[in-house]
Design goal:
With about 500 residues, the chain is of the alpha/beta class. The protein is about 45% helix and about 15% strand. The protein is built from 21 helices and 13 strands. A 6-stranded mixed sheet has the order 3-4-12-9-10-11. A 5-stranded parallel sheet has the order 8-5-6-7-13, with helices on both faces. Strands 1-2 form a two-stranded antiparallel ribbon. Helix 12 links the parallel strand 9 (about 265-270) and strand 10. Helix 5 (about 115-135) packs parallel to helix 6 (about 150-155). The relative contact order is 0.15. Mean pLDDT is about 90; it is low at about 490-494.
Length: about 500
């Protein structure tokens, strides 16, 4: 019998944790990120068996590889994932738009907040609630967001009295729809902060909070960013789904050699959670060619092309705000896999990066990275040009983030024998200003129009000379006060 899946830190200080431990953690206690100690391999026979599965069932199959049945029995897992993915606006949960000239767009945005984060977030919150109910326990979720993660966390966890949810977003750097998905939630267990800074600024006090192990243990502090392994784990499924639907594997089977064909997957990239998921799927045996497309915040592109893994002086505000990120923290998972799970090397690299915001990849590391990841960078004008061209040729409106990926289709010709998939991370409904700037129109869904009529609630985190410490203190105070309140009111599960 196989031993249950266990998890370790990318920095080498932690081993042997189980899925439940990792689910309730943010960063590992040694500052690293959790990864499975071994990555399961998917055989061609397994992939053939999965072809044609509904997306929800595919998610169950993928999750069952990483969650032992001793922790969540298969029947319970099926119920949890089924419930999590039942509220999407299309019955198939995700959908592929097959457009002209081989342009295939995988739409991952049919959840409540119109972004791909809803897929993994709804499942992760169901897993959390499952354990909380079982153990009669409470937890505090703290999330920094560049736009979409916060709204998704709030909508997935609102009303669950075993979870307190604290979200911090960068004021003025996200769209009105993204903001309204957060500040219009008035549930008692939701606490929203608008910060005068970038999403990278927000990450600094949050890291300090998670580094305080006494605080983490006392208040069961955890993260729902893609720092959380469960988020990345669920995201594996859409790469596998894309492969099963678009690689042409059934055609390859009919040919003599029967080798699995390659699929190129192009991803708009910010925090690099999707890219980390894609690379893990590649390690599982799927022949993926991964392309990370970035906007003017081009740290991933510079790391791959020149070895310069360094933050720019400031985060540039672009038309694709959810990927306005200079600290692509999930690259730590990529580096760990790339360097053969060498925790000591990753620890040295990432601690240097966190302290100085700079790191120069040795040429042999850069070369390894460039062999598994292609990159490109797109200006705001390139985003608008791509949105217009896609509309002109297909009458299909892209969100600006998806346009960052689809720019690659128009500017990087490829062999007709290579199939491609472009990841659509959000609905254009969330980015109406960019749609209008491109000279296009998009009818807003009724649920988005309704947001304007709702009351709002949030607190400000203002910039000060010692802003990082001030924000940390404010958030720490809130964690302690909401814990005190909920102890007095008791916990009732829904």
């Amino acid at each position: 019998m196989d031993s249950p899946m266990q998890y370790c830190s990318t920095r080498g200080g932690i081993r042997g944790w189980d899925f439940r431990d990792v689910l309730f953690s943010g960063f590992a206690p040694d500052g690293g990120m959790f990864m499975p100690e071994s990555v399961p391999t998917l055989s061609p026979d397994t992939l053939r068996g999965w072809r044609g599965l509904p997306y929800t069932k595919l998610v169950v199959e993928v999750a069952s590889l990483f969650i032992p049945t001793q922790l969540i029995p298969r029947k319970d897992l099926e119920v949890l994932v089924g419930e999590a993915l039942s509220g999407f606006s299309v019955p198939e949960v995700v959908r592929i738009a097959r457009l002209k000239d081989g342009l295939s767009v995988l739409e991952l945005f049919h959840g409540q907040t119109l972004a791909f984060k809803d897929l993994a977030m709804t499942c992760t919150v169901r897993f959390l609630n499952y354990f909380l109910q079982k153990e009669n326990h409470r937890a505090t979720v703290v999330v920094g967001t560049s736009g979409d993660t916060g709204g998704s966390a709030i909508q997935s966890a609102k009303g669950l009295s075993g979870l307190e949810v604290m979200v911090v977003y960068p004021r003025g750097r996200i769209t009105p729809v993204q903001e309204k998905h957060m500040i219009t939630c008035l549930e008692d267990n939701v606490h929203v902060f608008a910060a005068d800074g970038s999403s990278d600024d927000i990450d600094q006090p949050l890291r300090r909070l998670f580094a305080d192990q006494e605080l983490v243990k006392t208040y069961s502090l955890m993260s729902l960013n893609s720092v959380n392994w469960s988020r990345v784990m669920i995201q594996l499924a859409h790469f596998i789904y894309a492969y099963l639907e678009l690689s042409g594997m059934e055609q390859a089977e009919a040919e003599a050699d029967g080798e699995l064909p390659e699929l190129e997957v192009v991803v708009p990239t910010g925090g690099a959670g999707n890219i980390a998921a894609g690379y893990i799927v590649k390690q599982m045996g799927l022949p993926l060619k991964l392309v990370a497309m970035v906007n003017s915040n081009d740290i991933v592109h510079r790391a791959v092309t020149t070895g310069d893994f360094s933050m720019a002086a400031d985060v540039t505000q672009t038309l694709a705000p959810a990927i306005d990120i200079q600290d692509p923290y999930n690259m730590e998972r990529v580096f760990w896999l790339l360097l053969g799970r060498d925790g000591a090397s990753v620890k040295n690299m990432m601690e240097e990066f966190q302290q100085s915001h700079r790191h120069s990849l040795p040429e042999n590391h850069r070369r390894l990275l460039s062999q598994v990841l292609l990159t490109g960078t797109v200006t705001d004008e390139g985003i608008l040009e791509t949105m217009r061209r896609c509309w002109d040729e297909n009458q299909y409106v892209l969100c600006p983030h998806t346009a960052v990926a689809v720019w690659h289709h128009y500017h990087c010709p490829h062999s007709p024998t290579l199939n491609r998939c472009y990841i659509a991370t959000a609905s254009p409904a969330k980015f109406q200003a960019a749609v209008e700037k491109a000279g296009l129109t998009f009818d807003l869904p009724g649920a988005v129009l309704e947001l304007d009529k709702l009351a709002t609630r949030y607190e400000n985190l203002e910039r000060s000379v010692n802003w990082c410490k001030d924000w940390e203190d404010r958030l720490r105070e809130k964690i302690q006060s909401v814990s005190s309140v909920r102890k007095n009111r008791g916990t009732y599960y829904i």
